Amino acid sequence: MSKRDRRQKASDVFRESKFLYSKKVSFEEAFPEIEDLTVEVEETGHGVSELNRKRTYRKQYFPGEYIDCSNPLCYNGGFSIGSILREMVKKRQTELETLKLCQGHEGSPKGRRIYRKCMNFFKVKVSIKYKEANEE
Ligand SMILES: [Zn+2]
Question: What spacing in Å lies between the alpha carbon of 69 and ligand 1's midpoint?
């Protein structure tokens, strides 16, 4: 598969979408309450190998709003880790384990033709350490 044919993933589509404001927001600005966090993702499905099956993300080098799927045929693939974190922060939840289906679909490179929904899914484990309320 040539580089040109690489399917855009959720984070690519998001980056190129109209949400100009969102892409400028750093993790620190988006989640000022979070001191540190670990997100463990275990993916099952197409394009998944021993090398990329398990990924761990920390606050530094956080991927952003979306974590992408590995299915090479999938367009707009991945899931929104941002929405999971916003939900957790709202409830001040520290631990969460959940299952997320890929939001993308297999199709032509630009996503114009859809063949079928991507069947990849992710086991997600999040653990958040919040900043102390009265840190002076
Ligand atoms: Zn996918």
Answer: 5
DSSP state letters, 22-74: HHH--HHHH-TTEEEEEEEEEEESTT--TTTSEEEEESTT---SEEE---TTE
Q: How far is the CA of 47 from the centre of ligand 1 (A)?
A: 9
For residue 2, pLDDT beyond 80: no
Taking only the tens place, the pLDDT of each residue in 109-131 is 777 788 899 999 999 999 999 99
Distance CA 88, CA 69 (A): 22
Whole-number Å distance, alpha carbon 104 to ligand 1 midpoint, is 5
Q: From the CA of 85, how far away is ligand 1's center (Å)?
A: 20
Question: Distance, CA 115 to ligand 1 centroid (Å)?
Answer: 12
Please report which confidence band the pLDDT of residue 76 belongs to, taking 50, 70 and 90 as the band edges: very high
